[in-house]
Write a structure and sequence with these properties.
The protein has 210 residues and is mainly α. It contains nine helices and no strands.
Length: 210
């Protein structure tokens, strides 16, 4: 029963993480624009965010957010505002030329700690994820949750999320995708910023409309 629950949860989480969203856009862009290392550190941040959400869901964050809808609204507005901020930054830099070093870091003052922070915040920008995690766990966890699950499931969530985005980083930080990005930089950045802005506005809108 325990093993089957973990396998079922892992399967659903894997299907969810490969669906493109803000995290995918941000990891992919950091891998292409900065370096493979920046992409992997961004993936590390999103993985930690997934682990935090999974643990919070198991500890009852879903019940808290449903009991205090005002808190849920505030968190969604804050998350949407963060995505809009990322979109504005990306749009403003769309026409800025880059000189990418294929095997090195772009020296623009962006530290790995900043990259990790933004990866983490991008993952945490949508509190709806906590509800999704909680819904998955409610359906697939045994009625009496073993103590081991409070460690195993966040760790599994981290490994699935980080593993997927690490693959994305490794693929997109190679020479061919980076050269293609250089040719299409303005269009790609503007399209990516539009998607982030749309997701942010949708999140803010959903906080006021039931």
């Amino acid at each position: 029963m325990i093993i089957s629950s973990l396998i079922a949860i892992a399967t659903v989480l894997t299907m969810g993480v490969i669906s493109p969203g803000p995290s995918f856009i941000y990891v992919a862009r950091n891998a292409v624009v900065h370096s493979r290392r920046h992409g992997l550190v961004t993936a590390l941040g999103t993985g930690v965010g997934a682990a935090i959400f999974s643990l919070a869901a198991m500890l009852g964050l879903q019940k808290l957010l449903l009991m205090v809808p005002e808190l849920f609204m505030v968190l969604k507005v804050a998350g949407g505002a963060y995505l809009l901020w990322l979109a504005v930054k990306m749009f403003r830099g769309a026409t800025r030329p880059l000189n990418l070093a294929l095997d090195g870091d772009k020296n623009d003052g962006r530290t790995l700690m900043m990259t990790f922070r933004d990866g983490l915040l991008t993952q945490l920008s949508n509190p709806k994820t906590a509800i999704i995690f909680a819904s998955i766990f409610s359906a697939l966890l045994p009625e009496n949750i073993p103590a081991l699950f409070y460690v195993a499931i966040p760790l599994m969530s981290f490994l699935i999320d980080f593993g997927w985005y690490a693959i994305v980083s490794l693929c997109l930080s190679s020479e061919r995708p980076r050269r293609a990005y250089l040719r299409l930089k303005t269009s790609v950045d503007r399209a990516s910023s539009a998607v982030l802005a749309a997701l942010g506005m949708r999140l803010i809108y959903s906080s006021f409309v039931k």
